């Protein structure tokens, strides 16, 4: 079990060994995001820009026009908010091959406080034309998604959590862009999750299975573009779908599933996530519990939703 930020640094070092196009531009957070691993292994491929995220995006765009494949390193919130205009104008509109490595996304940086937590990033980036949006479940999927992103010919936003979570996948996992992944079968309810929240949902469904409740679990690693037809096929005729995300319920995974099912399915969709509220500074376990995202709280909400539907 390894933190995604650690995997990002290690994977970029390995890729940079054979790909001279890879550069990392950092916003004075290299030891936090683990961009320092690239700085140590390939100092000629690392640019310390400082606390200047808007400039970082502009520099990355310029370098991309020279044939480089730059990666941006900082906390996600600084790219999705502070540098949003530059991302919109220079990266999204031009389809530049710039990779935004959004570290410390979601709730798992409670010690940094709500100013540094990004619980609306998926909504912002999903609305951005030409932007590929990825939220890997664990370290194994993160490594595979990073390798795919390095070769993708367009802009990528990839969400990384600060802390490690239990692995969902096994070594050798193949990342297929746009494809939802069925993690388990069940008949009582269909649960769809994304990012590192998928690991907690898997634990929650273990708890429910011990009580005789079986769930089909679908993980969505790439929110955009998404193979919508395949997701609808996996949902099938399920009367109840519950989405779970470490993100606001507005504009993220829950909204995406509602959009997809609205015109083609009579499925009822319930959304678990932050209910249109800001997060706060507190220990991670406290935050996950308070906002209903710990395995126990997810299990309780799935049970309550099932009970209400009956």
Structural account:
By secondary structure, the protein is α/β, with parallel strands linked by helices. The protein has two domains: 4-159, 3-Layer(aba) Sandwich (Rossmann fold), CATH 3.40.50.970; 181-309, 3-Layer(aba) Sandwich (Rossmann fold), CATH 3.40.50.920. Helix content is 40%, strand content 19%. The chain has 13 helices and twelve strands. It has helices at 4-16, 30-33, 36-41, 53-64, 76-82, 84-92, 121-126, 139-151, 197-209, 228-235, 253-262, 284-290, 295-309; strands spanning 22-26, 46-48, 69-75, 99-103, 132-134, 156-159, 181-184, 189-193, 215-219, 222-224, 240-248, 268-274. A seven-stranded mixed beta sheet has the order 2-1-3-4-6-5-10, with helices on both faces. β5, α8 and β6 (156-159) form a beta-alpha-beta unit. α1 (4-16) packs parallel to α8 (139-151) and α4 (53-64) runs parallel beside α6 (84-92).
